Amino acid sequence: MASPADCVYSESHEWHRVQGDVVTIGLTRYAVDALTDVTFVQPKPVGTKVSVGGIVGEVESVKTTSDIYAATPGEIIEVNKAVVEDPSLLNKDPAANWLLKLKVSDVSGLGKLMSAEAYDKKYPTS
Fold it and tell me: Of 31, 35, 53, 83, which one has the fewest beta carbons inside 10 Å?
């Protein structure tokens, strides 16, 4: 399954979708498949300020706990309560189920991320 082309992708397997000064962050299919069964999602609270590479939350599975990172500085302005209440949504369709939104002042860090094509080539999924 191809990753959505309207996003850019980090080495830590988050997708970032830019819409003006808001960046929506979610997990990639590759990440969810590696975790196997996501059982818990805990984004940082609204109002949290993060730097480039800052931790914006964590996700737990039957295998492990992993941090979620932002590729750009910003402030968390919204969390997806549906995913927090039902983490299994990520297992079904991680591309459609975002985790949080950041209001950003500098998106230049996103230029270092991979396109969908480059990400899928480096991290193929079945």
Answer: 53
